[in-house]
Amino acid sequence: MNAREWLAGEAATPDVVVLGAPIARASITPVESWSTPPAFREALRRFPTWDAEQSADVAQLRVRDLGDVQGDRGDTDARAAHQRLQEAAESAARRAAHVVVIGGDNSLTRPVMQGLMDATPGPWGLLTLDAHHDCRPAIDGSRNGTPVRELIEAGLPGERVAQIGIHPLGNAQEHADWARAQGIHIVPLHTVRRLGMDAVVTSSIAQMVARGVERVYVDFDIDVVDRAFAPACPASLPGGMQPDDLLRAAYLLGCDPHVVAADLCEVDANADVNNMTVRLMAATFLNFCAGLATRSRNGNRA
Ligand SMILES: [Mn+2]
């Protein structure tokens, strides 16, 4: 069985549900990221369910793909699609302990996390793997550069946000200053390189837990990865994260009992080169799921 066949299984009581979010209208750069959820599913055909390094088989997880939420291609902006996504995320959270959303542009993070928080109120934290702070002010509504600011302004305490992989040339100073002033735990790329991904994931989660976080939502913005490996991300940069570090982070976060949900975003499959970005996205998802499978094998279901 390949990973595509696994995802097509129709578990009645799933451990993890998957939702596609084919949206693109909120992207600051015009993109066709509505094309990515189907390309992501196809890319899974290239992978087995077995992860030899972790000795984990994602097929041990009961999965249910709920399909794609209606996107925003027929709309003039993303507002209606964001509302649909928020409702879909809320109802997905009632079906399974874990929810994974496949974007779509990064504006999805705000409505999806809000839907999950509506379903399960409590002290949530947000951990991003992203070259950018996504702390632009939402003057023109929700965009792919605004979700972290919107969530904080809606009440998520900044000290319950951690950002791994911030790129030195990825952000305006005013947005970085705003992020710092909110108390966001910021881990720049050079710190990832100096300390290693295991150390920064462990310390980021520990920081959030020390600040009262019980449930962690992870935003995997694939543009955290070096542009040479992520050409389909409109805002990926040279000098970015190495793919193996992203994959390691995905596995570690899947293993962590605080982590309950994730999104993978910012890939425009129609702009990809030799499927390399979409396959990286698929591998990130599989590493996250291998972590979830390891967690349940260890009897540590969150
Ligand atoms: Mn982003």
Describe the SSE topology.
Blueprint: H1 3-7, E1 16-21, H2 36-43, E2 50-51, E3 56-57, E4 63-68, H3 79-93, E5 98-103, H4 109-119, E6 124-129, H5 147-153, E7 161-166, H6 173-181, E8 185-188, H7 189-195, H8 197-210, E9 215-221, H9 243-255, E10 259-265, H10 276-297
Parallel strand pairs: 1-4, 1-5, 5-10, 6-7, 6-9, 7-8, 9-10
Antiparallel strand pairs: 2-3
The protein binds manganese (II) ion.
The site of manganese (II) ion has 6 residues, from loops.
Quick summary of this structure?
Helix content is 37%, strand content 17%. With 302 residues, it is of the alpha/beta class. It has an eight-stranded parallel sheet, with helices on both faces. Strands 2-3 form a two-stranded antiparallel ribbon.
The pLDDT mean sits at: 96
Order of helices and strands: HEHEEEHEHEHEHEHHEHEH
The overall strand count is: 10
CATH class: Alpha Beta
Low-confidence stretches: none
Bound ligands: manganese (II) ion
* Overall tally of structural domains: 1
What class do helices, strands and sheet pairing give?
Answer: alpha/beta
What's the tally of helices?
Answer: 10
